[in-house]
Amino acid sequence: MMHMSEPGAVSKYVGPDGFERRPSAPDTTVDIVVSARDAGADMFGGLVTIEPGVELELHYHSQFELQYIVSGQGFALDSTGAETAVAAGGFVLSPAGRAGSHGFRATGSEPMQILFAYPSTGGQEPDRFPFDPAAV
């Protein structure tokens, strides 16, 4: 039996010039790779680049977040105050809510790049809340 193509979204390549650069903290960039602008998107995600010596502050979302360390090294920070060494090839899994608060500090001589993705109907951007340890 021959299957006909569904109308609508098709696979596409998005090169670095197709990313949507977003303003971020000093010495940190965020390039959005998939969002509501992409037909058929069921996720929101991109690439964060953190320069050596820079810390991305603790924050959380009401959605689960998957983060893959593409390059560099540093520490993942969590809501308990723990710091876990991370390096290229590893993942950080952050549950939804305050307990899943997370941040990163880049160390070493090269920037840390983190590919992140959230489940998101229609590719809508997730919420983001600062984590205040004193409010626990």
Give a quick summary of the entry.
By secondary structure, this protein is mainly beta. Helices cover 0% and strands 46% of the residues.
Overview of this structure, please?
- The protein has 136 residues and is mainly beta.
- The chain has one domain (18-131): Jelly Rolls, CATH 2.60.120.
- The protein is 0% helix and 46% strand.
- The protein is built from no helices and 11 strands.
- The strands form 2 sheets. It has a 6-stranded antiparallel β-sheet with strand order 1-2-3-10-5-8, with no helix packed on it.
- It is globular, with a radius of gyration of 16 Å.
Notable characteristics:
six-stranded antiparallel sheet; mainly beta; Jelly Rolls; globular; disordered N terminus
**CATH architecture heading:** Sandwich
Reported for the largest beta sheet, the result is: 6 strands, antiparallel
Helix/strand structural class: mainly beta
Q: State the CATH superfamily name.
A: Jelly Rolls
The number of helices is 0
Just give the CATH class.
Answer: Mainly Beta
Can you count the beta strands?
11
Topology order in helix (H) and strand (E) letters: EEEEEEEEEEE
Overall geometric form: globular
Spatial sequence of strands, sheet with the most strands: 1-2-3-10-5-8
Termini separation: 59 Å
Strand content: over 45%
Detail the poorly predicted runs: 1-6
